[in-house]
What we know:
Elements: H1 5-18, H2 22-41, H3 45-61, E1 76-77, E2 80-81, H4 89-95
Helix pairs in contact: 1-2, 2-3, 3-4
Amino acid sequence: xxxxxxxxxEKQFRSLKLSNRHDDRRNAAEHAYALAVIxxxxxxxxxxxxxAKASIDLFDENQGKNPNDYAPQNVTIGDVxxxxxxxxxxxxxxxxxxxx
Length: 100
């Protein structure tokens, strides 16, 4: 059976989240943000909240030390564009405030 896009993204998220590498955990935060947006657009608010919270928590745990650390690592994830300049927990909270 073929996996859906969200199943693939969730698997990537879980793998990145388990890493001890700072870059992988920030990438996991971006994946969680993308999954939150996707599930919000699908009307799956509980899953959207779950991934929004995961994204916020991961960004808070892996804060950057200079402005360049807040640049997104990805242009898009699963057809969800990342913010073009900076992404951190405040951006996620602002963009997904309808979930809370």
